[in-house]
Amino acid sequence: MTRQVGRPVSLADTSLKDVGALTAEDAALELERLAGLIAEYDKAYHTEDAPVVDDATYDALRRRNVALETAFPELVRADSPSERIGGAVSEGFGKITHAVPMLSLDNAFSDGDVQDFIGKVRRFLKYDPLMGALAVTAEPKIDGLSLSLRYENGRLVYAATRGDGTTGENVTSNALTIQDIPQVLPAGVPDVVEVRGEVYMAHADFASLNARMEANGGKVFANPRNAAAGSLRQLNSEITKTRPLKFFAYAWGEMSDISADTQMGMVELFGQWGFQINPLMKRCESAEELLKVYHGIEEDRSGLGYDIDGVVYKVDRLDLQGRLGFVSRSPRWAIAHKFPAERAFTTLNAIEIQVGRTGALAPVAKLEPVTVGGVVVSNASLHNEDYIKGIGQDGESIRGGRDLRVGDTVIIQRAGDVIPQIVDVDVSKRTAESVSFEYPEICPACGSHAVREINPNSGKVDVIRRCTGGLICPAQAIEKLKHFVSRNALDIEGLGEKQIEAFYEYDMDKGGVRSPADIFTLAERDKSSFNKLRSREGWGAVSARKLFDAIDGKRQIELNRLIFGLGIRHVGEGNAKLLARAYTSWTGFNEAMNSATDTTSDAYRDLNDIDGIGGTVANALVEFFAEEHNREALDALLAEITPLNVVVADSSGSPVAGKTLVFTGSLERMSRDEAKARAESLGAKVSGSVSQKTDLVIAGPKAGSKLTKAQSLGIDVISEDDWFELVGDN
Ligand code: IVH
C-alpha cells in the first residue's frame, strides 16, 4: 500500500500488520495518524480543489481506519474520519451561545386574533384610554432565516444563526460576504451592539441562481428561503460569496446602551448605522389601523420582489415591551399575523389509523403528493372519526356535513409549519363505487377494543377513540418511548423514532428496549450480547459508541424534561415546568404524587393549588401514579438516572426568590397577569390560594376570604404599593 503521495507524511509501520496482531497502543497511534492524514486529504480535495492522492489509496486508508475502529471501539477518536463525510465536516460551524436568546413569535391567523392580541396587551398593562393611544408597529414578516450580528467597539465580531434560540452556528465568514451587512459601524455606536434581522434572497436573484445551477448540471433550490438557508450555511464561504443574499434589520439582542425609546426609533437608528430596514414598516394606533396595513401589504405582496409570509406587529414603546416580557419562547409584545394558508386539490388515497402513546386512534390522510406553497405534501391530519364524517368538535356540521372517503378529490391547506389540513371535498367527483369510511373499533396495533369514553365531567362521549390494550399494545409502548427520547424530553441524540422502532423489536438479551429504563442499560447489556449493536445494519463501532455516550450524557436530566418525558396525559411541556418548579426535586414530586392518589390528602390539595394546574391534569397525574406498573417502571428508571433539582431562577438579590405569594383583591397599578409574571421572573411562586405554605399575600382593595385566611394564619400581608416598593419597581 502506498501511503505517501504529494507530501512526506507517513504512517507507522504497524499499518502493515494485520489488525488482530496489533496492541492497543499501536492501534491508538495508527488511528491518530490516520485521522490526521485523511483530514488533510479531505481538505486538499474538497476545499483546495487539489487532491493529493488517488481514490483507491484514499479508500484503502478509510477502510483501514474502519477496521481498526471495529477491533478497538474504545479507541475511536472524537475526530474520527468515519463520522465525517468528505469536506462537509459534520461538526460544521462552531457554536455560539446567544447573549440574549433569539425568540420566536406567536401567530395570529385572523383579524379577530389581532383584536385579541391588542386586547390582551391592554389588559396585561391595564392600559387606560386616558393614557393615550397604544402605539404598535406593523412590518412585513420576511420569509428567510434570522441572523444575529454582534459588534464590539463598532466592529463585527460574529454572525450567528438562530439555532435552537439559545445556541446558534457561527457563520461569520459567510455573513462577511453579504453586502447589506456592514463590517464596521459609524463612530459613536454603543460598545456592544447586536443587530438581528432576516437573511433572504430576492425573487430575481433566486431565479438567476437556479438558472446558473441548472446550467452547471447542479440541483436547483425549491424556493428562495431554501436557497438563502443553503447559501448562508455553506461551509465554504467562497461559495456563499457567489450567492446574492440580502439582509433586513428589525430587532436586537444585547446592547450596552439603548438610545431610543421605541421600536420604530431603534429600527430607524439601524437605518442610520447603514443597515437595510424595511420601508413598509408603519406605526399604528389601533387594531383597525394595523389590519389596514396588513391588507395593504397583502395586496402588494406579489410585487415586493421577495417572499414574505405575514405581517409582524410589535408594541412600540420599549418600556411597555419590558413590562410585557415573555411567555416561554415568544414575547407578549409581538405577534406574527400570517397570510392565509395556500391550498391545492389532490386525491385522498387512503386513511391510515395510527395509535398514539395514550392509545388515541388518530386517522391520517395519505394523499397523492402535491406541492403547496413550495412544499410537497403527502399526509394530512384528519383529527378524529367525527371529523371524517363531517361533524365538528361540538357536534356541529363541518364542510356542509360532507364526509371524506378514500378516492375523494380533496382541497388541502398548509399554513406555515402547521400540519396540513383537509378543508373540503369535491363530492361531484365521487364515483358510484365510493363508500363511506368505516372507522375501526378494534385497535389496529394490538386487536384490543377501541372505545370512546364518556367524559365524567361533561357526560359527553369523547371525540377520541382509544385502544384499551394499555400495556399489551405495542403501538402505545413504542409511541411512549419515542416521546421519552424526543427533543423536548430526554433528547437523546442518535435515538430517534426509527431507532426506537428497531430497538423495540429486538429480544431483551439482544439489545431490546421496551421501557425507558432499558435505554440506560443498553450499553451494559450490549457488552454481553451476541448480537452487538455495532455489528447491525446501519450501525458501526463509532455510531454505537456515540449512542451509548449520548445516553450516558442524559443520566443527569432536568426535572421538567423527565416529567414531560413520562408522557402522562395532559402533562405537556408547560405543565411539566410548573410541576418541576413547584416540587423542585424528583423526590419531592414523586412522594407528593404517591400521596396524592388519596384525593382527600393535603398532597392532592397542594397539587390542585399549583397555579396553572387544574383538576384534569391533577387527576391524570393521580391516575398515572396509581398504576402499579407505572410505579415499577419509574423505580427501574430512577435506578439509572439522576434528575437535577430545580434551581430557582437567577434572581440574585430578589427579596421574593423561592417564596410563595398570593395576589388577591383588585390590583390597580398592574393586571393580575403582569403581577404574576413579574413575581415569577423574580424567582417567586405564585399560588391561587392561601395555605400554611404561603409566605406573603399582596392584597388590593376588596380582598375577601383569602385576606381573612392569611390574617388568621398570621401570614404577612402587604398592599400593592408596598409590593412595588419591595421589588424596586417604583
Ligand atoms: S421579530 C422577539 N420581525 O420570524 C421577536 N421576526 O417567527 C424577534 N421574522 O425567528 C423576531 N420577519 O426569523 C421579527 N419583521 C420581523 C420578521 C421576523 C421575519 C422571522 C424571524 C423569527 C421568526 C419568528
Index terms:
730 residues, alpha+beta, D-amino Acid Aminotransferase, Chain A, domain 1, DNA polymerase, domain 1, 5-stranded mixed beta sheet, 5-stranded antiparallel beta sheet, 24 helices, 26 strands, globular, disordered N terminus, binds 2-(butylsulfanyl)adenosine
Can you walk through the features of this model?
- 32% of the residues are buried.
- The protein has a five-stranded mixed β-sheet.
- The longest helix has 24 residues, at 24-47.
- The radius of gyration is 30 Å and the shape is globular.
- The protein starts with 23 loop residues before the first helix and ends with a helix.
- By secondary structure, it is an alpha+beta fold.
- Helix 14 (516-528) packs across helix 21 (628-638), helix 16 (559-565) crosses helix 17 (573-583) and helix 17 (573-583) crosses helix 18.
- Among the domains are: 95-338, D-amino Acid Aminotransferase, Chain A, domain 1 (2-Layer Sandwich); 492-553, no CATH class; 558-644, Orthogonal Bundle (DNA polymerase, domain 1), CATH 1.10.150.20; 660-727, Rossmann fold (3-Layer(aba) Sandwich), CATH 3.40.50.10190.
- Mean pLDDT is 89; it is low at 1-14 and 85-91.
- A hairpin with a 2-residue loop joins strand 4 and strand 5.
- 2-(butylsulfanyl)adenosine (IVH) binds at residues 103-105, 139, 141-142, 146, 162, 198, 250-251, 312, 331, 334, 336.
